[in-house]
């Protein structure tokens, strides 16, 4: 499978088009505090070179407000795909699925700062064109608080499936170091999708809190 061509994104197969991601998150509607609680740890058991990014497949259980989601995989985009008033260096995507197959992506926007130990483990275990067994707990990459943006969108790589619930957390507690950023970009120089048309979709913005069981 050839790498995804981020320089010619207009050639990507997309049979949808009206609710695509990522989007600019500047214009928002105020919302109440939203709480995300990790009910079962996000445990990655396989690290995969999927030609687009480093994918960490695993399992876990998350409750967002009153809804439960199963964690299935995580991956990183550099630079960050969503835009807020703050330009961030990278963006973690923690992909979840409901019991009936709906998708939710919890995104964490990362500023430059200190190295996150989990990111060092991810980079150290990476083997190109391969899948490796690993044992990593990823919910340490969730901040204790921040600002969350919620909207309805799509996956940001083909098949660009729509109907995805986005839960984008902007925060400053979890960071990525310049060295970690450089190591990742040596593997994947630029894997962010350009901003998509908002098409009048509402975006809810409110305080984020990480809950406890």
From TrEMBL:
Alpha-carbonic anhydrase domain segment(s): 2-213
Keyword Metal-binding (UniProt): yes
Domain of life: Bacteria
Residue ranges of coiled coil: none
Biased composition range(s): Basic and acidic residues: 1-10
Pfam families: Carb_anhydrase
Gene Ontology molecular function: carbonate dehydratase activity; zinc ion binding
Classification via SUPFAM superfamilies: Carbonic anhydrase (SSF51069)
Top-level EC class: lyase
CDD domains cross-referenced by the UniProt entry: alpha_CA_prokaryotic_like
Region (Disordered): 1-21
Catalytic activity: hydrogencarbonate + H(+) = CO2 + H2O
Keyword annotations of the record: Lyase, Metal-binding, Zinc
EC numbers on record: 4.2.1.1
Homology family: Belongs to the alpha-carbonic anhydrase family.
Record protein name field: carbonic anhydrase
